[in-house]
Design goal:
binds pyridoxal-5'-phosphate; alpha/beta; 15% strand; 8 strands; 9 helices
Length: 235
């Protein structure tokens, strides 16, 4: 991809985000675009950077670390994939946001490491709203306990919730899932007193619906960088 193609894709996605905000009566500044750069080379990410994009998402800690090291320091990195406890230190050092936190044990581990490293990661709790067994994330019924655990942590800051919807699900189902995350957030916020301003939901195929249902962060890869080219395992 060249810079012209990236610029055009960024413009198109931003315009679609703005249109979804208008339909929902929301201000466009309420929703931020995370460019999901997994499998995308640092050179191509740099083109997006030159086109003005600052916020990037990676789902593997190893890739995240390499890309953080090769891009300018004013990028804002989000770990959007599941985090294993043994990679927590690397993740905290590399990313400002950890979006897929789904257990109290992991929260406490992050709190400990953040204290040692003198960092303050921003956390989103991943909730499995759809109930699909293939999706990670805490069950809806566990979310209140997770918020309570996050409130005990002094060195991580819980900012809201994240979810993934089943790929290609019908619109009514997507609205149910995204609206469900928003209602869960409203309820948790009211019950706990913990402000949970961020809702990370929506990907290339469904970010407009997610914005209409209240998303504040959308995670978009394919619509910006094209279909992902996964390395082919050699025989
Ligand atoms: C890959 C990924 C995305 C982006 O998906 P696209 O369909 O390419 O936009 C968003 N969120 C998570 C957690 C991902 O792993």
């Amino acid at each position: 991809m060249d810079i012209t193609a990236i610029q055009a894709n960024l413009c198109a996605v931003r315009e679609r985000m703005a249109a979804a905000c208008r339909r929902a009566g929301r201000a466009p500044q309420e929703v931020r675009l995370i460019a999901v750069s997994k499998t995308v080379s640092a050179d191509v990410i740099r083109l997006a950077y030159e086109a003005g994009q600052r916020c990037f998402g990676e789902n593997r800690v190893q890739d995240l670390r390499q890309k953080v090291a090769s891009l300018p320091a004013d990028c804002e990195w989000h770990l959007i994939g599941h985090l294993q406890s043994n990679k927590a230190r690397t993740a905290i050092d590399a990313a400002a946001w950890l979006q897929a936190i789904d257990s109290a044990a992991l929260l406490h581990r992050l709190d400990q490491i953040a204290a040692q490293e003198n960092r303050r990661p921003l956390i989103l709790l991943q909730v499995n709203v759809s109930g699909e067994s293939t999706k990670s994330g805490a069950a809806m019924a566990e979310a209140a306990a997770l918020v309570a655990a996050a409130r005990q942590c002094l060195h991580v800051e819980c900012r809201g919730l994240m979810t993934m919807a089943p790929y290609g699900a019908p619109e009514a189902e997507l609205r149910g899932i995204f609206g469900g995350l928003r209602r869960l957030r409203d309820q948790l916020q009211a019950e706990s007193g913990q402000p949970l301003p961020e809702l990370s939901m929506g990907m290339s195929g469904d970010f407009e619906i997610a914005i209409e249902e209240g998303a504040t962060l959308v995670r978009v890869g394919t619509a910006l960088f094209g279909e992902r080219q996964y390395p082919v395992a050699s025989a």
